[in-house]
Write a structure and sequence with these properties.
Blueprint: E1 3-6, H1 13-17, E2 34-39, E3 52-54, E4 62-65, E5 69-73, E6 78-87, E7 94-105, E8 111-114, E9 140-142, E10 146-149, E11 154-162, E12 170-182, E13 192-204, E14 213-223, E15 232-241, E16 247-259, E17 262-270, E18 274-276, E19 281-287, E20 295-305, E21 308-309, E22 315-322, E23 337-340, E24 344-348, E25 353-362, E26 368-375, E27 384-385, E28 388-389, H2 390-393, E29 400-402, E30 407-409, E31 414-422, E32 432-442, E33 448-460, E34 469-480, E35 485-494
Parallel strand pairs: 2-13, 5-13, 24-33
Antiparallel strand pairs: 1-10, 3-4, 4-6, 6-11, 7-8, 7-10, 7-12, 9-11, 12-13, 14-15, 15-19, 16-17, 16-18, 16-20, 20-21, 20-22, 23-25, 25-31, 26-30, 26-32, 27-28, 29-31, 32-33, 34-35
Amino acid sequence: MKSKRITNCFKSERSQTRPKKMCISNKNLDIFHYSFYMIAFVLTMFVSTEFANAQTPQGSGYLVQPGQIGINVVPRERHEGALKIHNFDPNEELRLQFKVIELTQKDTGDWLPFDTDPCSLFDFYPGLDLTNHNSCRSWIKLEESEILVSPDSDGVINFTINTPYNVKSGFYGATIMAALVVRGVEADKVPMFIRTAVPVTANVRNANTTPNISIEDIGMEFIPSAEAKPGNVKLKMKIKNEGKTFSRIDPVIRVRGLIDNHWKLITTHKFGDMGIIPGIELNLESNIDKSLPDGKYQLDAVLYVDQRLRGSRSRFGKEIEFEGDPLISRPAYDVPLDLDPKEIIFSMKPGLKRPENLKIHAAIEERILVQPILGIPKAFEGIIDNNVKISDAMTCLDWLSIDTKNLTIENFRNRNLLINATFPEDALQYPNYYASLGLKVMYPDGQSAGTEWLNICIENENAIKNPEVICSSINLTANNELNSEYIIQASYKILAIHMFFQQK
């Protein structure tokens, strides 16, 4: 038997140190409790399994899969699912407790699990604005509230989600919280909670529900240099969701400067893809890694909502008189690079070595420096599939080498960058292995001129490639109700661990 289940109510240390239905201040407790929790976001690119994991002080840890539960439902619908818990500790049995609490979002875009019980030791936030909060906490029923997972084994917690018959269309959220109590060997050691939050998002479908997400304001702020850090500029964007949908957004700001009575593009800055729930106002901030002098600037913001522009609400422009860095006399413009090829694919057999040449062209007369940086693809960050950390198992980072540390380009010239790949003979587990190559562009004074990224793949010529792709979700939303125009959005996942770059 790999795991033992214990059927009872959710237990915690606080329930054992005070009577029921009685709130006691944390200051009055004899033992202080420490809690850490991790929230995992949906990562559907390349692999099918979302995840959340936590590490114990002993260095072992546990893993909860999936890390986020997202469903599209209609009234009076029942969903059944399960959380898989893996114990990485080879020697110790782990006892985990489970509880369902609420879910909202911080103004930074991060998830915020919270509890409405003022007696809760964790996750209670007095004064939290819940005006537009829709909860599906009462819909979720856990089969068990506590589980014992044997060393190096798996355990399962089954759950059901029952949608009420009279529920209105829109977004509803909750959190399944897993807690591991770690105790010291000595009796006087302070117990510590290591917790994993699994967000549950439910969209009640309605074809006439359209996103109502808009840009409220944008701005730019100068950050003076401090100690060894040079001056920087921070971009700000305020986004509000006044609709009923949980949508993915991709905010972008373009910065233009007035030079010789002409507006010239300085940089295009992406805040990154994120979700936004109904009733939330995000206040996003991000540095552009360069400083700007005093002068007139145009800020043009664009907001993609579910990969589409939604009319005037998706655009916002502003012209500002900017008080910038007194030490800078001219803006450091981004320098786009033309790369040939755009993706590097080594098709080879294990045990061989092969070089590949990358041609870099910069359409600029001025002298710039290009610094190559090898890394792990962003899509692999935090991904675990069948207890395998993808960023370790499927990367070819250690098999690549670049002899040149910096390239100098000027007068519209081309430069070549040689990348060498060595495919080990024992690398037979997967048909493809991946890495990313970043080309960081700088001016001689150290100011950033942007970064270009491209993908690298080592393809095993001897491997049999058989990807399994399924449609994981499909949504119907109105685009123009008067003309009966609707948008169908589908998400796909690759079930097998065979991953490919799109090739045209």
